[in-house]
Specification:
2 domains, three-stranded mixed β-sheet, mainly alpha
């Protein structure tokens, strides 16, 4: 009945039948899957009309989408007033602030950053900067920059141990309402930031608990990388605002600090199955660790995909105000994909989601040929859930309401 969705999600047709049957019984919404399959086909038809041709195979489809990424990236450079040869991080930050539609939230007071570092001295960071103790470092360095740099100077193990040791006593009184901050790290971080960029493949990160987004001073100007990273900046505005809503919610229930730490770790329930009417909440992109993680093939929703959809909505809205940019092409395509024949006669999935394609162009710039579709797949799971509950706002409300349980039950 909706074999194309089954093929796109790489799950058995019977599984989607079971979801449709149970959710229709519980919510009274019939033929949702069929409607979404028709919607996906219409979005692809619209995209092909915009491209001005009907590609014959998966390679032609992907090349047409990659061409759009490269063209729109050049227009974004032009709008910001920079180029790969004249890259200016401050101009990038200013433009991201102008385009972003989130601006404030409820975050940990900055004074607590010093307290955390005193409890858990970041020895790798101190060694890199040439300090022997935390007090000297904090007297001479900006604590916001130091805390931001922890993401690429300290290990994941150190970060998780710090969550347990230094974040454990925080109460709602430690938080305040303030603006989301986007900062460009100083040149003193360039050498070590290069290692982070080499590992993560992007020069953007964030501190959701402090409402800080930061740019490493490493220009990523090969084709695909600038649009990829600029969209990630916008994504982080939505992510820190989303987690701010969760911090506020957890302030009203028991065990605040433990739930707060769980959010920072990105905990996901270890489950190989769900009951009828249950949807798992997956707050990370598990595909990046293990593409065969069984949780990816269960009915689930993904907050990360909410942030990406909103970031691309920001870019599309910008594109509609500045039509020369062409960014409106990506409107509504965040959950769209098709399965096409390859040159070898096999069936191959092609994501129409913007970030998947920007990452594909970036991979080719690095001499690779990696294909990405995990943003689109997670977006499609979200799209299915949103269709059942009525809209994306209700999807987000239910995730926030059930995050501590890790599962939504109808």
């Amino acid at each position: 009945m909706y074999g194309k969705l089954s093929e796109i999600l790489n799950v058995p047709q019977e599984q989607l039948d079971a979801i449709e049957f149970e959710t229709t019984r519980l919510l009274g919404r019939a033929s949702v899957m069929k409607g979404l399959e028709e919607e996906n086909g219409q979005l692809l038809d619209n995209a092909f009309r915009s491209l001005g041709k009907l590609p014959r195979d998966s390679k032609e489809v992907r090349e047409a989408l990659f061409s759009q990424i490269e063209k729109h990236e050049q227009e974004l450079y032009r709008y910001i007033g920079i180029s790969p040869q004249r890259f200016d991080f401050e101009r990038v930050a200013t433009s991201a602030r102008e385009i972003a539609t989130e601006s404030e939230g409820w975050f940990l007071k900055k004074d607590y950053a010093k307290e955390i570092l005193q409890k858990r001295p970041p020895h790798s960071t101190m060694h890199y900067l040439g300090y022997s103790n935390v007090e000297d470092m904090l007297r001479k360095e900006d604590v916001g920059e130091v805390f931001s740099a922890l993401r690429f100077t300290e290990s994941d193990e150190w970060m998780h141990e710090t969550f347990d040791a230094a974040y454990n006593g925080f109460t709602p009184d430690a938080f305040e309402e303030r603006a989301i901050e986007l900062r460009v790290l100083g040149p003193q971080w360039k050498e070590i930031a290069q290692k982070y960029v080499a590992k993560k493949h992007h020069n953007v990160s964030h501190l959701k608990e402090f409402g800080i987004i930061f740019l490493n001073p490493i220009a990523q100007t090969e084709p695909g990388k600038f649009l990829r990273d600029f969209a990630l900046l916008l994504h982080y505005f939505h992510e820190v605002a989303f987690y701010s809503k969760l911090f506020r919610r957890y302030a009203e229930i028991d065990n605040f600090s433990q739930k707060f730490i769980s959010l920072l770790r990105g905990d996901v329930l270890e489950k190989n199955s769900v009951k009828a009417g249950e949807w798992l909440i997956v707050q990370r992109y598990l595909w990046k660790v293990n593409p065969e993680d069984p949780r990816l093939f269960l009915p689930h929703v993904n907050p990360e995909s909410i942030h990406w959809r909103k970031a691309q909505e920001d870019l599309v809205a910008f594109g509609k105000r500045n039509e020369q940019s062409g960014l409106e092409f990506w409107d509504q395509l965040w959950a769209a994909a098709g399965v096409f024949s390859s040159n070898e006669g096999q069936r191959e999935l092609v994501s129409f989601e913007m970030e998947d394609n920007a990452m594909g162009v970036a991979s080719r710039s690095d001499g690779g040929n990696e294909v990405f579709y995990y943003h689109q797949r997670e977006a499609l799971w979200n799209r299915i859930f949103a269709a059942y509950v009525g809209n994306y706002a209700e999807l987000e409300r239910r995730i926030i309401e059930n995050m501590e349980k890790g599962v939504i039950s109808f």
